[in-house]
């Protein structure tokens, strides 16, 4: 019962009731990424008449965070490629960093020098800047 109430009332935590029904009726599971996000498309890869292309969607494992989609799945979701990442053998490069969640609004958020919440002071401006003055 608790899961049903959460599904009805909390759209930011996982799947909603409407998405669950749509997925059960019209969706086809195509894969899962390393974060547990599940990816779907219209059954049989059918083209949506109203859109003119195949519908693709993701059901997030935890919070609804668009930055939690890995690059391969991001390309597939946005119709950049039609090959599923599960069908490819991809080896990450040494310079690629692991995913970090969106840290905006947290204590770990980026705060540049000179911002109200940042530490330190912004570097002084140089002589190449002249403020505009109305005549």
From TrEMBL:
<dbReference type="GO" id="GO:0045271">
    <property type="term" value="C:respiratory chain complex I"/>
</dbReference>
<dbReference type="Pfam" id="PF05071">
    <property type="entry name" value="NDUFA12"/>
</dbReference>
<dbReference type="InterPro" id="IPR007763">
    <property type="entry name" value="NDUFA12"/>
</dbReference>
<keyword id="KW-0830">Ubiquinone</keyword>
<protein>
    <submittedName>
        <fullName>NADH:ubiquinone oxidoreductase subunit NDUFA12</fullName>
    </submittedName>
</protein>
<dbReference type="GO" id="GO:0006979">
    <property type="term" value="P:response to oxidative stress"/>
</dbReference>
